[in-house]
Amino acid sequence: MNIVYLNGEFLPIEQASISVMDRGFLFADSVYEVIPVYAGRPFRLVQHIERLNRSLNAIRLSLSDLNIQWNDLFSELISQNNLQQGSLYLQVTRGSPSKRDHRLADETQPTVFIKADCLASNSSKTQNEPEALKVITVDDFRWQRCDIKSTGLLANCLARQMAEDQQASEAIFIAGEQVNEGSASNVFIVEQGVIKTPPLSNNILGGITRDLVLEMADNNGWPTEQSSIRLEQLYHADEVWLTSSSREIQPVTQVDDKTIGDGAIGPLWHKIVHEFADFKQRLFSGDLR
């Protein structure tokens, strides 16, 4: 039985319901997080909650009156679902006012929903048999606050379907000639031995796995650079990677009709994914939180 948390209660998902007047339903007036769980522990929880708070502040939604203890909630939900490897989906909406109105409703009680899911681990595949991805590029037709982890994801869903229509795994948003991010991932390239990713801006969501990749590279002395990436750089990169909490770190060998490098998964990807696997192993053993 899948137990979820909704507004102070733990209950079976079949019994969970919200009002049709909830602003998350009517306006996508809500933010969310997806937190991996490894060995029964939330992964980089502090960073996920910090990002949640940034999103809440950006949309002017406060949870201070609820006095939520995230650690306790997550631990209880993980225990009730006997979750060892998976993810926690957390969504906070502005709640359910008495009438539909574009103005922000200050008097409503926020809706807080958390559910636990099994999560297939990409790095559980052997490093000898990694899945190389084909991706496409699309014009970036999203709104101008992509740094907020909002549930208003229709543009992302449409882009992801465009990729699916072309038998591709992801769509990368391009603004003019600048690479932004994937529909649900951050983008890295390797160019002459330097690991590069676009800098954080209102066009990019600051990924938790993105930050970890940069940390691991710095710790190993591999040069990194957060700088603008042009479409031609993407096409001619030595390596291309996608990162996210669910994808972890995935190699790309084709962008649109262009083969990346020699068409094989690059050596730096093998190194970084080895570091990531080691990082998770230390998490499993209790050395990390």
From TrEMBL:
Recorded hits in SUPFAM superfamilies, A to Z, give:
D-aminoacid aminotransferase-like PLP-dependent enzymes (SSF56752)
First and last residue of the signal peptide: none
- Segments spanning the bilayer are none
User: InterPro entries, alphabetically?
Assistant: Aminotrans_IV, Aminotrans_IV_CS, Aminotransferase-like, BCAT-like_C, BCAT-like_N, Class-IV_PLP-Dep_Aminotrnsfr
Q: Which domain of life is it from?
A: Bacteria
Keywords linked to the UniProt accession: Folate biosynthesis, Pyridoxal phosphate
Q: Which Pfam families match?
A: Aminotran_4
The GO annotation for biological process reads: amino acid biosynthetic process; folic acid biosynthetic process
One GO cellular component term, please give it.
cytosol
Which pathway, per its entry?
A: Cofactor biosynthesis; tetrahydrofolate biosynthesis; 4-aminobenzoate from chorismate: step 2/2
Write down the chemical reaction(s) this protein catalyses: 4-amino-4-deoxychorismate = 4-aminobenzoate + pyruvate + H(+)
Q: What class of enzyme is it?
A: lyase
UniProt EC number: 4.1.3.38
Gene Ontology molecular function, alphabetical: 4-amino-4-deoxychorismate lyase activity
Cofactor(s) the record lists: pyridoxal 5'-phosphate
Q: Which family does it belong to?
A: Belongs to the class-IV pyridoxal-phosphate-dependent aminotransferase family.
Report the protein's function. Answer: Involved in the biosynthesis of p-aminobenzoate (PABA), a precursor of tetrahydrofolate. Converts 4-amino-4-deoxychorismate into 4-aminobenzoate (PABA) and pyruvate.
What is the name of this protein?
Aminodeoxychorismate lyase
Question: Which species is this UniProt entry from?
Answer: Pleionea mediterranea
